[in-house]
Amino acid sequence: MSTSVYSRYRAAFAQALAGALGVPASDIDAQVKPADPAHGDLSFATFPLAKAQKKAPPAIAASLAQSLQVPGLEVKAVGPYVNARFLPLPFTQEVIDSVRQAGIAYGSNAEEGKGKTVVIDYSSPNIAKPIGFHHIRTTFLGHCIANLYRALGWRVEGINYLGDWGKQFGLVAVGFQEFGKEELREDMAHLVQVYVQANKRAGEDPAFDEKAREFFRRMEANEPEAMKLWNQFRETSLKGFKRVYKRMGIDFEHIEGESRYQGRMDAVIAQIAKKPGVKESQGAIIVDMPYAENEPPVLLKKNDGSTLYATRDLAAAEDRHARFNFDKSLYVVAQDQALHFRQVFRTLTEMGQPWADKCIHVPFGRIHGMSTRKGQVVELDQVLDESKERVLKLVEANIASGNLVTEDPDGLAEQIGLGAIVFGDLKHNRASDYTFDWDEVTSPEGHTGPYLQYAHARSATVLRKGGGVPASHDPALLTLPEEQALVRELMRLPDTVRAAAEQYEPSLVARLLLDVAAAYSRYYTAGNKEREKRILVEDNDALRAARLALTDATRITLAAGLTLLGIPTPENM
């Protein structure tokens, strides 16, 4: 797809300003901002020019506005600002055509990231444990960021980096020997019960905890019996994980874990020993580099010879660069791990890796409000079940009242329930904490997934009632303020997708979709209040076709944005 409609007009305005001022367009570009909607669409402040021109900013603005002729823009001075407004034509036609021609790919630009590769490490549950509710941020954020980069033409290598190595697996193994039932060896739920019991026992019994550590040492020594048990439990966990990911519509290019780097750690430590160096500290091996006051050192090996997260992450970073030659390597991991990643990336830099600055931690905040019982994890699957059950009650009530007709209420509830959970997370700024609230998340009104899905379904319903998508339309007829406001919201998706990818911030897309849905709701409601504003206006086929084309563009924009977020798009609600 070519440059977005907004970007083209913005560039033309900046170019015209630069020509009038006799400076490069690059000097002006960053100074062109969105205008106050009451005064236009684009704005340029003249304050920085006052000293050089020895004129008051309003006088500069008035002179500049008179000198500018930009096709498709109405340029006016408003005090010290030069403002530009998109003329209804060709702007309206360009936006609607760009949406409808692109279809579900609207917002994408396959040329932008052509030839570039991004590696995205996300989700990453531990084997022998369920995918917990606390995994939703890394999973949904990572999935959406991957979608954004795919939309921009990047080659995406999504990695589900399993926690399948370490003492926690020793706990599962020795726990199974003591609490496990052989006939339930391949039952994920049973493995979880075993882990909970073993973890509790280890906290109370140092001898049991040492048995778990010893089992992990046997794994690191590649002892056959230990590795056989590890592999059996890992496969059981993977089966359970894949079922949940399929339910969420999430797929990974690679599912691999820390175990991939077993046997490679000594080579990494030897490499670090050359530069920047290693040293012994209380029997452990650490990276020999300067540390801030009270900063813990980067541990590479414990005093018992076992390796740590940092060692494996350093090996993984080198392996990923060797395999993918990435332009970016993103780690979508909680803010709690900020120090860990700063130290890993700094170690790579000290090792002299020229690509170290391409490794980026994408942190996120915490979720509050989901109650847990001590020692137990709230499973993501259970949360999706409850969301579906809550939504199904609303679906059945609407069917009973005659407001909804569907042959698959259960499937519809699954789609809406998933959308509620996904959007309930992604609408929040990535770095912020938020409190989970069931009533808010599943509400069909407000800033929710069901509200957006309903807006999409409503636009699809209007199209069906109107006889389908019009073959042709006259955009000159779309002159209502509600129509022009809606067109301006539709215009924003391509630039929002780009900004969301650059900032690793899916909430930008989520908030735009809320704006699109709100603008369409105002448009639809205006027709309920004033007959001549109805989308399915009677006795005027040309106007009806134009409004149906705008509705179609709205449906497509909502569908494209929801799909990027990983949210289903039912056409009947």
UniProtKB/TrEMBL annotation:
Keywords tagged on the record: Aminoacyl-tRNA synthetase, ATP-binding, Cytoplasm, Ligase, Nucleotide-binding, Protein biosynthesis
InterPro entries linked to this entry: Arg-tRNA-ligase (IPR001278), Arg-tRNA-synth_N (IPR005148), Arg-tRNA-synth_N_sf (IPR036695), ArgRS_core (IPR035684), DALR_anticod-bd (IPR008909), Rossmann-like_a/b/a_fold (IPR014729), tRNAsynth_Ia_anticodon-bd (IPR009080)
Domain Arginyl tRNA synthetase N-terminal stretches: 7-86
EC assignment: 6.1.1.19
Enzyme class: ligase
Organism domain of life: Bacteria
Reactions this protein catalyses: tRNA(Arg) + L-arginine + ATP = L-arginyl-tRNA(Arg) + AMP + diphosphate
Gene3D superfamilies documented for this protein: Arginyl tRNA synthetase N-terminal domain (3.30.1360.70), HUPs (3.40.50.620), Isoleucyl-tRNA Synthetase, Domain 1 (1.10.730.10)
Domain DALR anticodon binding: 452-573
Protease keyword on record: no
MF term (GO), any: arginine-tRNA ligase activity
Subunit structure as annotated in this protein's UniProt entry: Monomer.
HAMAP family for this protein: Arg_tRNA_synth
Entry-linked NCBIfam families: argS (TIGR00456)
Family: Belongs to the class-I aminoacyl-tRNA synthetase family.
Record protein name field: Arginine--tRNA ligase
Annotated organism of origin: Corallococcus praedator
Lineage, top ranks: Bacteria, Pseudomonadati, Myxococcota, Myxococcia, Myxococcales
